[in-house]
Amino acid sequence: MLLNPNAPRIEFFQSGATSIAPGATVTLFWSTRNATTAVIYQLDRRGERTRLWNVPPAGNLSVRTSEQDRGQVSFVLSIGEPGQRVEQTLSVPLECPVQWFFSPPPLECADTDPQETFLIQQRFERGRMIYSGITNEIYVLFNDGFEPAWITFSNQYDPNRHPEFDENFAPPPGFYQPVGRLGFLWRGNDTVRNRLGLGIEPELAYDGITQTATLFGGVASLYISNPDGTILQLIGTGSSWQIITPN
Q1: Cα(163)–Cα(169) distance, rounded to whole angstroms?
Q2: What is the rounded CA–CA span in Å between residue 7 and residue 14?
Q3: Domain annotation for the chain: domains and CATH numbers
Q4: Torsions phi, psi for 153 (to 5 deg)
Q5: Which pTM value belongs to this model?
Q6: Closest by Cα among 41, 206, 54 to 119
Q7: What would the pLDDT profile of 143-163 be if each residue is shown by its tens digit?
Q8: What is the residue-wise DSSP string for 137-180?
Q9: Rounded to whole angstroms, how far apart are CA atoms 222 and 137?
Q10: Mapping DSSP to helix (H, G, I), strand (E, B) and coil, where does residue 100 land?
Q11: Which sign does the torsion angle of CA 38, 44, 47, 48 carry?
């Protein structure tokens, strides 16, 4: 098949740096043939086109990145009319300005610095509950094989209004009724109570660390330190969770 010598084509589309820090300016360079105009799009973490610039068929463009950008910044150069459109993607790696609180660190860069917080955790027959003081939320993690794998609840427990535990409920030997913040949610939510079952140990309060990141594809991830030194990773908005054992 013979190539059309008059068809639009991109000769090059590149950046002036191999990597940059979030918030820095990146300069894009490009050259095309058989095109009268061009458009450059910036992509978000999900690959969706957001910002755009109408540019000449050859030239350069300086773009200021956001301090919240992580992983890489990506652009698309588009030329030609519909039916003859030609596009090329350019991605520039971003340096990670944030340190992880455990090692080895994940591949992605953290969104935030590590946050010290008061935590309460209790293990159950089919999962666990974690209260985070920094967000005043309770994370309920299930290991029963059903979806969602975990759920977040705002803490509604008020010790001045709500009993600490149900004095009329006596769990079987070797099991525990959750109390306080965890118990108030457990008693009042049938889904949580039925999916988790009974506590297999008393709750444990400790000072821990949390940190957030955005995985490739724009999926949120939350990391919570465990009292035994392992790390809980909560992925997405309830899609999955796992325990990470640092070195």
Answers
A1: 13
A2: 21
A3: 9-93 (2.60.40.1930), 115-244 (no CATH)
A4: -130, 140
A5: 0.75
A6: 206
A7: 999 999 999 999 999 999 999
A8: EEEEEE-SS-S-SEEEEE----TTTS-SS-TT--PPTT-B---H
A9: 13
A10: coil
A11: negative
Local structure of 221: helix, strand or coil: strand
pLDDT tens digits along 11-32:
999 998 999 999 999 999 999 9
Q: Please list, in sequence order, all residues whose beta carbon lies within 8 angstroms of the beta carbon of residue 133, skipping any fewer than 6 positions away.
A: 117, 118, 119
Instruction: Give dist(CA 205, CA 152) in Å, integer.
Output: 19
Q: Mark residue 145 as left, alpha or beta (left: phi above 0; alpha: psi -120 to 50; beta: remaining).
A: left
Mean pLDDT, range 50-75, rounded to an integer: 92
Per-residue tokens: 117: 């917080």
Q: Which tokens sit at 165?
A: 């535990």
The structure tokens 């890489």 sit at 72
- Residue 99 burial (CB count, 10 A): 11
Task: Report yes or no: 12 and 31 within 8 Å, Cβ to Cβ.
Answer: yes
- Give the closest residue to 91 by CA, choosing from 78, 106, 69, 76: 76
